[in-house]
Amino acid sequence: MPPDASALPRNHSKPLPLPSRKYSRARFDRARRRCITLLAEGYAVTETARVIHVSTWTVWAWLRQPQFRERLDAAIEEFDARLNTEVERIQERAHAKVDAMLDSRHSGVRLRAAEAILTMGRK
Questions:
Q1: 76 closest CA partner among 31, 35, 41
Q2: Band of the pLDDT at 77, cuts 50, 70, 90?
Q3: Is 70 domain-assigned?
Q4: In whole angstroms, what is the distance from residue 60 CA to residue 106 CA?
Q5: Does a structural domain hold residue 7?
Q6: What's the distance, Cα to Cα, between the start and end of the chain in Å?
Q7: Are 36 and 72 in contact (CB under 8 A)?
Q8: Band of the pLDDT at 18, cuts 50, 70, 90?
Q9: In angstroms, rounded to a whole number, what is the distance separating the alpha carbons of residues 12 and 15?
């Protein structure tokens, strides 16, 4: 049932104001930056498009732009560097734990630590 005409605001016939161009550009830029981040982290194009609410065609179009591609390549290098740093930090902690296990009072713990060291050495 339609609302009573007297219940509608008097200016209901005026169109709603559109967002400013600045707002649209800011939203667009945020979507592109988020796209670069997601792709650099290994997300697929379709998943990236879904997360940032654009079509896969849009993501593929961005990927064809040289400036976008340069930013993505830089983001991939940065992500890889951060990931490598984190892996090295975790490896150092693991080595320290295994090293401490070599000094255990229990022979079984020392044996397992020695086996772990030998296994790591083979990889």
A1: 41
A2: very high
A3: yes
A4: 59
A5: no
A6: 73
A7: yes
A8: very low
A9: 8
Note the pTM of the prediction, 2 decimals.
Answer: 0.60
Extract the tokens encoding 29: 């830029």
User: For residue 3, is it within any domain?
Assistant: no
Per the structure, how many domains does the chain have? Answer: 1
DSSP 30-80: HHHHHHHHHHHTT--HHHHHHHHT--HHHHHHHHTSHHHHHHHHHHHHHHH
Cα distance between residue 108 and residue 35, in whole Å: 50
Domain that holds residue 88: 21-122
Number of H helices, E strands in the chain: 5, 0
Token pair 């975790």 is found at 90
Alpha-carbon distance values, 119 to 37, 86, 89, 90, 112 (Å)? 36, 22, 19, 17, 10
Q: What is the pLDDT of residues 81-90, one digit of tens each?
A: 999 999 999 8
Residue 4 lies in a domain: no
